[in-house]
Design a protein that fits this description.
By secondary structure, the chain is of the alpha+beta class. The chain contains 5 helices and 5 strands. Helix 1 runs parallel beside helix 4 and helix 2 runs parallel beside helix 5. The longest helix has about 30 residues.
Length: about 200
């Protein structure tokens, strides 16, 4: 029972800790991403220790993605929704135009004719806007959070994903604790190599 409670607590601590770090390091996503990945891997190892088998750990990787994405993206998107400025802009230049790069840095002009100093970043060619496209962006007047397309800002959705992932982790940890307890009582031993199923 104590093992199960410890693993459940680790899952909650991973979710809240990564989200809190993302809030404290707004604008530096690599920090909460790096810490979040390490904590998610720690949770996976704890599941193996608790359950004595790998299949639940593999299953936990799906909610881990929801936890990681939700925790890392909730804080900046909430900041944009809270204090961000919504503006209609037109794309006037693309840093990747004429190159093989798919790392786009779009120069934007507002409806007043002013060109924004900040660039809109889009990595990848899938759904990438083009020069001449008009769109709405959300930008942080304090400059702590990178600009995003307004349609992509969904703090409530990120929070829901974070909560759903953490809830799934809790259920998996409880199942792992119960299965691990049953296996130990049946005398299956501690060897993982014999208990992959």
């Amino acid at each position: 029972m104590r093992r199960t409670v410890a693993v459940v607590f680790l899952g909650w601590a991973t979710a809240t800790g990564t989200a809190g770090l993302a809030y404290l390091t707004l604008g530096s996503r690599w920090v909460p991403i790096s810490v979040g990945v390490v904590l998610c891997l720690t949770f996976a190892v704890a599941l193996i220790w608790l359950h004595q088998a790998l299949w639940l750990t593999v299953l936990s990787s799906v909610p881990a993605l929801f936890v990681l994405v939700g925790a890392v993206q909730y804080a900046p998107e909430a900041a944009l929704e809270l204090r961000g400025v919504r503006e209609r802009v037109v794309i006037v230049a693309d840093s990747a135009a004429g190159t093989s790069s798919d790392n786009h840095r779009f120069s934007l002009r507002t409806t007043d004719g002013d060109e924004l100093e900040e660039k809109l970043v889009h990595d990848g060619d899938a759904w990438a806007p083009k020069v001449g496209d008009q769109l709405y962006v959300m930008r942080d007047p304090e400059g702590a959070v990178p600009m995003e397309q307004a349609d992509d800002v969904d703090a409530a959705g990120r929070l829901e994903g974070l909560i759903a992932g953490t809830a799934c982790w809790t259920l998996i940890a409880v199942l792992a604790g119960w299965r691990g307890h049953v296996r130990r009582r049946q005398g299956h031993g501690e060897s993982l190599l014999l208990q992959l199923a």
